[in-house]
Amino acid sequence: MAQGSFQRLFLVAAILAAIIGGLQGTTDQQDVSALQGIYTNLGSPQQLNGWSANGADPCGQSWKGVSCSGSSVTSINLSGLGLTGILYYQLSSLSSLTTLDLSNNNIHGNIPYSIPPKLQNLNLANNNLDGNIPYSVSGLTALNSMDLSHNHLSGQIVDAFQQLSSLSTLDLSFNNLSDNLPQSFSALSNLNSLQLQNNQLTGTVNVLANLQLGDLNIENNHFSGWTPNQWKSKQNFQYGGNNFSVGPAPPPPPYTPPPSRQSNRSPTKGSSDTSGNQGSDKKSPSGGEIVGIVIGVLIAVGAVLGIIVFARKKSKKSHDEEKLHIDSSFSPLEPLTPKVSAAPKENPEQKLRPSPPPPEIILKPPPSDRNKSSTDKGFGSIFASKKTKNPITATEYSIADLQMATGSFSQENLIGEGSLGRVYRAEFPNGKVLAVKKMDTSALSLQKPEDFLEAVSIMSRLHHSNITELEGYCTEHGHYLLVYPYFASGSLYDILHMTDETTKHLTWNIRVKIALGIARALEYLHEICSPSIVHRNFKSANILLDDDLNPHLSDCGVAALNPSSDRQVSTQMLSSFGYSAPEYAMSGVYTVKSDVYSFGVVMLELLTGRKPLDSSRTRSEQSLVRWATPQLHDIDALSKMVDPAMKGLYPAKSLSRFADIVALCCQPEPEFRPPMSEVVQSLVRLMQRASLNKRMMGDDLGGSHTDSLDS
């Protein structure tokens, strides 16, 4: 009997141990959270057998495509499963992941900045990814192969390959990448295969000259100059569809010694490697060599004199015109080096080629030297070039075409007006409808047409799914016009404050989605563009909505055309006062942190449905920020502030977290406002909760304020 009792007790203990082990799981909790984030962002697809958004053990339960070593996830292979959605923003949580293969799917959006730090193989080919390669790849020192081909990546290839000496295969083909190759490509000492075909790349290929490439394809780009001589014998070198010169390469500049070859051969008979014998064996220069030396010296002297004369003229002209300057190598898709800072500051003239980030690839606040005013030299005043140094990717229109499309800029086609000009609806003969911004020349700080073209060049290279991209421009006959996509749904301001019917469709989930979209747009301008771009006119009227109510931030870069020293108040600028940060109202200083404040005001608009300034209300409620911010942490007062158009249909805890973000953004001290990357992460978590609520509730309302789902 005692033995039977002991057996039963042992059996019960074994069962309990199995249950507890199953509850605890065998997978590292950070890996579990990351995989759940991936699953949610991909739309919880049925193809991922075994995957779950909560209470799961990927290693213990053998999730589809997931391989583990012990408790750590080391490989994710989900190629060719027809997956959609976007990539999870915090992939760096997968600290032991060495292989990530999501190729041959339909995933869209940007490549996240936060990448697994130990990746050896990254394959995101054949998707619908846009944006650019994040600078955080510079920390992937173990990376062996990277395939990002057949996507929609655009802009300049980020200069982030200095430390990737292990990289042997790189495929960036069939994208929309442009501009020159990054100098850091020259550091890829072990690169064997490089595929760059079918992009819009320009400049020379000199940075690749010394690489021992076995397979190189640079076809169908816009490369120029000469191909290195050592490539001509390569069998796997494809370079058609470029603008390479066919003649002999130019000679080296005067006084440049030819490459030494003595180190590559053994000493010949009679030669000496001792300094004592060099004098007796040294050969006297010939007459031709003496003539060459004299000519070289004369050319060098003439060049020095020319430089001195040019410098004096340039100095005098600079003093007379007092022109401002921006570096011509602006790269709107090159991220800045993240670093921790208690008080991030803005410096638009920071180095364009930052050093690599630390091994842990975590998105941090912008560098701490960014608190300079946009009135300082930098992107705030972009006009210094004597000619347009950078290519313009937008279409050039004639004034006649734009007049015809807008009915000679008729009042009937007027759809908006701002401090820099009026916006007209333009319908072209092919049926395409665009928006034309006719700039008020009296409001622009232009000294030459080239100044406007330099600004257009920069604006034309801003590419983000939540930014209204520049379609075209016109500079004929002293007119300056910008052409953008047309959004029939209008602006967020119109929907919130002008049309009651449309406001009814702005459910809680949609409002959070709008906030996230415009937060991502600002994150791109502040933390991805280099130098960073300050919007300076961020307001709901500049947030355009498409038919699916996706937000698109307009006028990005346009504020740089406005005189930065002009503090006069115009009628058109009055509407922006409710969005202005305290430091701007007091001193005229405007930084990225001022944009963050304005973003917080727009979030308040989404939350309350009220205008930033409303003279029709009682005096204590006319300023939205002054009225709302003291009540953001009072749950009872907060529930009374919510836009009545939502009819109480929102998750209470999501509302509270939304209000927390508003409170951080609208702090009076700029140094305490968060960087937009942190705001994006907070809103992503809100969106994930909203998606969960939607599935559990079976509708698009996200539950009511009495729900406890959003825990």
Brief overview:
The chain is α/β, with parallel strands linked by helices and 711 residues long. The chain has helices spanning 2-24, 29-41, 58-61, 275-281, 287-321, 399-405, 449-459, 492-497, 500-503, 508-528, 582-587, 592-608, 624-628, 635-641, 652-665, 676-697; strands at 66-69, 72-77, 99-101, 108-110, 121-123, 128-130, 145-147, 154-156, 169-171, 176-179, 193-195, 200-203, 215-217, 222-225, 237-238, 243-244, 395-396, 414-418, 421-427, 433-439, 472-474, 481-485, 543-545, 551-553.
How would you characterize the overall build of this protein?
- The structure is a single chain.
- The chain has helices at residues 2-24, 29-41, 58-61, 275-281, 287-321, 399-405, 449-459, 492-497, 500-503, 508-528, 582-587, 592-608, 624-628, 635-641, 652-665, 676-697, and strands spanning 66-69, 72-77, 99-101, 108-110, 121-123, 128-130, 145-147, 154-156, 169-171, 176-179, 193-195, 200-203, 215-217, 222-225, 237-238, 243-244, 395-396, 414-418, 421-427, 433-439, 472-474, 481-485, 543-545, 551-553.
- It is of the alpha/beta class and 711 residues long.
- The radius of gyration is 30 Å and the shape is globular.
- The two termini are 51 Å apart.
- Residues 16-24, 252-284, 315-388, 563-575 and 698-711 have low confidence and may be disordered.
